Amino acid sequence: AGHDDVQFEKEFYNLVNLKHQNIVRLVGYCHETRREYLSCNGAMVFADAIKKALCFEFMENGSLKDCLFDEFNGHGWRMRYAMIKGICNGLKYLHEEVEPPIFHLDLKPANILLDQNMIPKIADFGLSRFFKEEKSHSTNSPIGTRGYLPPEFIHHRIISNKLDIFSLGVVVIKIIAGPEGYSRSAETTSDQFTKTVHDNWRDRLQSTASGDLLESYSEQVKICIKIALSCLEADRRKRPTIGDIVNILTETETLDKMSTCMVDDTNLIDVHPLQLHFSFRPNKCISCLFHVTNNMNDQHVLVRCVPKHEEATPRYYACRSRITGVVPPRSTHTFVVTMVEQEQPPAITDVLDMVVETILGEVKLPSLGDLYDTHFENARKENSCGFREVTLKAVCATTSKTTTSEVLIGGDGLRSMDVHPTEPWILAGYFRRLVIWNYKTQTKMMEHSLISVISPIAFVSTVKFIIKSTEQLFVVGDGDGYVHVHDSMTMKILKKFKAHGRRVRSFAVHPTRPFVLSASWDKLIKLWDYDKGWSCIRTFTGHSGPVTRVKFNPHDANTFATASSDRTVKIWSISSPIHVTSLNCEDEQACVDYYHTTATVTGSYSHGTARIWDLRTQTCIREIKGLQSPCQVGVIDCHPESDRPTLLITASEDNGVSLVDSTTYRSERTIHFGLGGVLCFAYIKGVRSVAIGHEHGIAILEIDRFFPKVLPPVR
């Protein structure tokens, strides 16, 4: 406790007087002592319990450690350079602008935080020290982090301002060349490392700049690499001072400003890679990715991707496929291009080339509707809104290798989808037909037409697998209130009965008992026992509007939740027809899911807002806005038996799919499949993927490969 007190007080005094835009700001502190009855050596005693905390400004984008990418992926050069310059400015303030100077002594990506505009701020001053003179000192105290410490400290325990310079060199190399950049630099000569990284960046910069602008960026990259390597000199006396570094960087900006004065609206958009690599497999949909990075602070980027050659559609690209999206400031979105099934790859791959068009502005995709294409055409003709286009050259190679994502295009009109818990099957309900897909082989296993002589509105509304000990079933709810029970192995219909007065909107299957819940637009929820001939054993009333979703509680299967257009979400017990809890929402609700043991997540119909609710207090504790309407939110519970947090998956208003961090509620990464609106999600536990049902197809996304940081490793 004594050491903790010293560390707490040291960091407080180190921070309280620091005021710089690249130093994290201390906004308050707490130091409280309470007398508590505690256990000590097997006996209960009264003792002082000390609670202490430092309160800093909130940094929306986490730490630099989570934003490191190699030369080919992630943030563009302008953003990376801004990070380098900001860190250097902050370190210059500590070394040369405060009295006495402060040596940080633990500079690393985890201790550099990023605000909402990605401005870097140096943090964690617990190991920092004031020095009245800039000469070297020796210490026996543990400081720093392995991999960021210079030779003179490792061998002789010497500290000076040049220790921070060495750490800065490691940080800058990782910003430029990714998390493995420093180890790469140690495996080759300085000249070879500089050439390799510089050439990689030049290739990428060619997609966003040309002429003088390309040359100035290219030179800036080279200078930053050389600065970083000079910081790593084994002899600390040969390392530059932070003042020298900032001056050199400022000189590169003079050339940068001269080159960018006439192209200010286009140089902050980065499209990469510039090739589409189709890993061809006969009679399979083949997908590949490209990324658009928006490096601006205050403008959105509208994106449209279209085939360069008219003959590519519908021969190679689906007619309904619309690859569009809106990339917010300071972010990167991924777009998926999907080639439909072919027996042979095209003889001339140029036919697969795509053109990526971008325009600037605050106009969001939903407000444009059918005018989206017109908006782009006008921008092209008038050369307005920062219009620019980049051609992606296609490369098609025959391989058995699978990609990060797979797409199943089974026709238009997908209405519902479910994933089999043990077999590699997806049950897809289209308007008046049912298909079982094998997602591993991308083949259609079985198909069944839904033909009703009772009513012309008996279209497929919702589907669900039911796995019994003796047989495998699935159920279909239609638009006329009927439930159809099918054998999953043959798709033969086994039973059909009138369950509701109006459309059956949702099913939920009890995990251990032979129960199925159905929710309907007739405002009712019913509990069915399929072991007793599908007899209705309870009807639940209480909603004043159509019920849109029903979900069993995965932590207590004797309770369930429902969402309704009556602007409420209700919690029920299967033993009572009356709800236990009612959450009063602001608008009509489209979906509900259990977030963890004490919370639910709901999605609105018309306002594109998801809300996290604390069931103990019946209050909304978090909102996520800017989502698709009706809002679709899913929960991925990768480790239900552990305390690991669940993950949220959302669909944005431009139909981009994102995984949302359960702590910061920030989108980790967004991907656009170009398959229309998102209808539903399903987690495929066996292969750690998520199935995403769209209007015009189903996408299978491998989470470990596309979102490598959000899931814990396989156990």
How would you sum up this structure, described in words?
By secondary structure, the protein is α+β, with helices and mostly antiparallel strands. Among the domains are: 64-260, Transferase(Phosphotransferase) domain 1 (Transferase(Phosphotransferase), domain 1); 269-398, Immunoglobulin-like (Sandwich). The protein contains eleven helices and 44 strands. α2 (77-97) runs antiparallel to α8 (242-260) and α6 packs antiparallel against α7. It is globular.
User: How many angstroms does the end-to-end distance come to?
Assistant: 36 Å
Beta-strand residue fraction: 35-45%
CATH topology of the domain at 64-260: Transferase(Phosphotransferase), domain 1
How would you describe the shape? globular
Which radius of gyration do the C-alpha atoms yield? 29 Å
Work out the helix count: 11
Q: In this structure, how is the largest beta sheet organized?
A: 7 strands, mixed
The strand order across the widest sheet is 9-11-14-41-40-39-38
Based on secondary structure, the structural category is: alpha+beta
Mean pLDDT across all amino acids? 83
**Could you estimate the helical fraction of the residues in percent?**
10-25%
List low-pLDDT spans.
Answer: 256-266, 710-715
The CATH architecture assignment of the domain at 64-260 turns out to be Orthogonal Bundle
The CATH class of the domain at 64-260 is Mainly Alpha
**CATH H level, superfamily name of the domain at 64-260:** Transferase(Phosphotransferase) domain 1
**Quantity of strands, as a count:** 44
